[in-house]
């Protein structure tokens, strides 16, 4: 049994519990990104354990006929062990998922991981077109150049503001500047793509911007939000015909998940509190 604060943001400790939540969301027209909690593994055995779990998850999603894809973190599938292990596992999981018609998203972690994560995404997407998606973070000053690099890659791109506390030398630290960069990056994607755009945001202004740009450019896109945050808005958007996908973590590592999020950035704790209070 998860405590109330975790129960709001985590679907449960088992894949079965996550599937129950997924079916509930699907019934309301909302897709799901399933993320088995786990990250920053220094032991290859831990990496292997989660890789086996993800392969099984892919098979189960395929058999269950759910509107669900899977989402992994680079440090969960080997990056903290070696870049080679990460790239091998990323490629292997996407190939396995493609065989089962299941889409794979790769999250983006702190700035030290950006180069290898994007390099691997580009290679994998070209070998397995439109079966994989990659997250990028607008708070990093490099992101516009990264978007220009990947905009023609045959894989989906999720753009988020960014949750990591990065130094001012490489990242925008003022919220107003982050918002400006985020608006510009969203506009760039809609102007240069006709598919494979995901806007990961709970900000009503950014969601409205995506809707306007989608109508203006005819770009296929989806809004992605976290489980437990602005749930009413997710249902309202889906009811209006907007493609909505909810990021759904599950697994036994929920305590370390919350602890790490708070350590990464003080604002994350305030964000969770606002979500609990419904603000």
Q: Which consecutive residue ranges, at least 5 long each, have pLDDT under 50?
A: none
Individual helix count: 11
The number of distinct β-strands equals 8
Largest sheet: 8 strands, parallel, barrel
Shape, per Cα inertia axes: globular
From the alpha-carbon coordinates, what is the Rg to the nearest angstrom?
Answer: 17 Å
Spatial strand arrangement across the major sheet = 1-2-3-4-5-6-7-8
Fraction of residues in H or I helices: 40-55%
Range of strand content: 15-25%
What structural category characterises the helix and strand content? alpha/beta
Distance linking N and C termini: 26 Å
Order of helices and strands: HHEHEHEHEHEHEHEHEHH
Report the average pLDDT across residues. Answer: 92
What's a quick, concise take on this entry?
This protein has helices at 4-9, 15-27, 44-64, 83-99, 114-127, 143-150, 175-192, 204-217, 231-239, 254-264, 266-277; strands at 31-36, 68-72, 104-106, 132-137, 156-160, 197-200, 221-226, 244-250. Helices cover 51% and strands 15% of the residues.
